[in-house]
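TA notes, week 10

Several of you asked for a full example with nothing omitted. So below is the full record: structure tokens for the whole chain, then the designed sequence directly under it. When grading your own attempts, check the secondary structure regions first.
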């Protein structure tokens, strides 16, 4: 691996050249994998045409066609955006930047919480490099809760940015939580009198910018007065288990494809807090600030509860209600430094619970806005997120039922089917990843199953929230009062009923369980 491709704080991982990414060794591994699948398929008894198996084959095939066509649709839309739509906007933005256009001021809203010193310093260095290239004054609005965080950032900013016109404004939060920090910063910005067309960067204190992020993002707002927000590409560097690095690489590859597909409709499904840029028109309004500070839902079981994390979903929902344009910039990026302490598996599950909970909490109210408030495709993407968790669980349940009815050969055929289809999907994801990683095949399937299970679990526990990397914050309803015990019981009951109902449908459909007829009931009760 060359120095330019070696991951690090100041040299984040970048895509390998084509000839290295698809080297003969990599191609040999892929062809060997398909050869093994072909041999397994040849040795597995062919039960596709067995009349007893047609219910299983039809449904698995139908679900597969539906999901793969939806995936293919995203891929085609992403290719159109990447090769036609975005290059046109990118070239026009470059012309605007090269002609001398600059924002009058760069505002950076950044939150930090007990970051490692070398990570904070790498973030400040990358930010100073971007501001230096822009050549305009800048203000860093730092939201923090601890003096040590403020001091290390101030010291390094003075060291690497003493030649720049940068003002550091520290806003010490008076309550815990990232949302409070953001709201306090936005109030300070509002008092400072930001203009409606001023541009504000929202970024996390562990996100190291890649060169050209500001140059590629800011001119897009000058080109389109209706554009109010954009988000960028992300990479991740994991200090922890290698399998977790592979898992997150796979998820970010999925994200790149999905984001480009969504952006073709001038919307995205999240405005990531890692690095997004906003026009100031809406973000300094009381409505926007309150949604950041005290976003909440009314739930029939849990009553009223506030959101703990998911500030990126709240910013997105606030702008979605106004019907404004949003986009994605695929060649502006940065790297998140993910420090994993303790169990990597526990961290993964906690992340999935947080991400899935945020999606469920915000997805429902976005759907309720209706397709009239957003492009129909974006509205259906929100609906599909809720359908996919059930279809993903239905398929393995059907395979299990088929194995009980037809024997182990059917299950072996299903495993081979999963192996082939997930490799085909991974071949697409490899084009969005920095390098080919055959671990994508199984991490993709495991991620889909685990994510679907976590979503079903969280669907009945929307008020239960936990955020370990922000001071181990927790929210929910604890204690032994009657109402708390009842809510916990109902959540467990509804989770069990949901899974049982899904499995019951599978068992009845496959004939493993017969529904009593009216005649049978009369005989039973008559006897």
């Amino acid at each position: 691996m060359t120095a330019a491709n070696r991951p690090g704080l100041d040299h984040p991982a970048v895509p390998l050249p084509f000839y290295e990414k698809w080297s003969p060794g990599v191609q040999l591994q892929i062809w060997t994998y398909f050869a093994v699948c072909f041999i397994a398929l040849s040795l597995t008894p062919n039960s596709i045409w067995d009349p007893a198996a047609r219910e299983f084959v039809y449904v698995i095939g139908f679900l597969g066609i539906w999901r793969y066509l939806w995936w293919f649709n995203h891929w085609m839309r992403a290719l159109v955006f990447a090769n036609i739509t975005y290059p046109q906007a990118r070239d026009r933005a470059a012309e605007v930047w090269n002609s001398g256009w600059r924002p009058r001021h760069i505002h950076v809203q950044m939150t930090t919480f007990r970051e490692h010193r070398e990570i904070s310093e790498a973030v400040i260095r990358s930010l100073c490099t971007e501001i230096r290239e822009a050549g305009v004054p800048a203000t860093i609005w730092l939201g923090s809760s601890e003096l040590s965080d403020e001091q290390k950032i101030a010291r390094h900013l003075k060291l690497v940015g003493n030649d720049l016109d940068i003002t550091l404004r520290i806003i010490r939060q008076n309550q815990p939580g990232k949302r409070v920090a953001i709201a306090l910063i936005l109030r300070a910005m509002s008092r400072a009198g930001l203009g409606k067309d001023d541009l504000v960067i929202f970024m996390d204190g562990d996100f190291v910018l890649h060169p050209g992020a500001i140059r590629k993002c800011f001119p897009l707002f000058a080109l389109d007065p209706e554009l109010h927000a954009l988000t960028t590409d992300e990479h991740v560097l994991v200090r922890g288990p290698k399998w977790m690095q592979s898992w997150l690489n796979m998820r970010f590859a999925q994200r790149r494809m999905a984001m480009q597909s969504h952006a073709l409709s001038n919307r995205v499904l999240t405005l990531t807090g890692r690095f997004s840029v906003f026009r100031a028109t809406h973000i300094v309004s009381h409505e926007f600030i309150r949604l950041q500070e005290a976003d909440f839902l009314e739930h029939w079981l849990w009553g009223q509860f506030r959101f703990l994390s998911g500030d990126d979903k709240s910013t997105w929902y606030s702008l979605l209600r106004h019907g404004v344009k949003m986009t994605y910039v695929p060649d502006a990026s940065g790297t998140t430094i993910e420090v994993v302490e303790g169990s990597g598996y526990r961290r993964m599950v906690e992340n999935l619970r947080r991400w899935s909970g945020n999606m469920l909490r915000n997805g429902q109210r976005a759907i309720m806005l209706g397709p009239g408030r957003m492009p129909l495709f974006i509205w259906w993407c929100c609906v599909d997120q809720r359908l996919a968790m059930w279809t993903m669980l239905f398929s393995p349940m059907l395979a299990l039922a088929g194995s009980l009815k037809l024997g182990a050969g059917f299950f072996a055929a299903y495993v081979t089917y999963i192996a082939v289809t997930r490799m085909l999907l991974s071949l697409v994801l490899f084009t969005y990843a920095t390098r080919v990683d055959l671990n994508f095949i199984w991490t993709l399937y495991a991620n889909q199953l685990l994510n679907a299970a976590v979503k079903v679990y969280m669907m009945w526990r929307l008020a239960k929230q936990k955020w370990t990397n922000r001071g181990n914050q927790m929210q929910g309803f604890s204690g032994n009062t009657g109402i708390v015990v009842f809510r916990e019981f109902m959540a467990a009951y509804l989770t069990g009923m949901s899974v049982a109902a899904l499995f019951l449908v599978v068992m009845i459909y496959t004939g493993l369980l017969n529904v009593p007829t009216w005649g049978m009931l009369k005989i039973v009760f008559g006897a």
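The radius of gyration is 25 Å. Use that as a sanity check on your answer.
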